[in-house]
Amino acid sequence: MTDTANRQQRGRGRGGRRPRVILRDSAKKITKASILRLARRAGVARINAKVYDEVRAALRSYLEIIIRDAAIYCQHERRKTMKSRDVVHALKRQGNLMYGFEQ
């Protein structure tokens, strides 16, 4: 075999079992600094420490609704890949227009 053929067969092999993905709470990745930046943009000077978890919970529920609607658009078109237009349509359905993504 040539060197390139050997290189392709090293490792897990062909069709090996993929590692299992561990799901974690991704809302914790929204840092305090990013929440504070959004609040500053809205004109808020100071934030109580208890507010950060409430903001994360509100963001999570909002994103669940948007992603659920976008997934319905994907299922309707018999696709498994969510496209940006699905998210734009889901936002439009909720009454939040997103500029710059017109079709």
TrEMBL record:
The CENP-T/Histone H4 histone fold domain, residue ranges: 37-97
Any one Pfam family match given in the protein's UniProt record, by short name: CENP-T_C
Q: Which UniProt keywords apply?
A: Chromosome, DNA-binding, Nucleosome core, Nucleus
At the top level of its lineage, which domain of life is listed?
Eukaryota
The main location is nucleus
Where in the cell does this protein reside? Answer: Chromosome; Nucleus
Offer an example of a GO molecular function term for this protein: DNA binding
Question: A single GO CC term, please?
Answer: nucleosome
- Is Nucleus included in the keywords of this UniProt record? yes
Q: Where is this region: Disordered?
A: 1-20
Query: Which InterPro entries does the UniProt record give?
Result: CENP-T/H4_C, Histone-fold, Histone_H4
Return the Basic residues bias intervals: 9-20
Q: What does this protein do?
A: Core component of nucleosome. Nucleosomes wrap and compact DNA into chromatin, limiting DNA accessibility to the cellular machineries which require DNA as a template. Histones thereby play a central role in transcription regulation, DNA repair, DNA replication and chromosomal stability. DNA accessibility is regulated via a complex set of post-translational modifications of histones, also called histone code, and nucleosome remodeling.
How would you summarize the oligomeric state and partners of this protein? The nucleosome is a histone octamer containing two molecules each of H2A, H2B, H3 and H4 assembled in one H3-H4 heterotetramer and two H2A-H2B heterodimers. The octamer wraps approximately 147 bp of DNA.
The entry sums up its family as follows: Belongs to the histone H4 family.
Q: What is this protein called?
A: Histone H4
Organism of provenance:
Heterodera trifolii
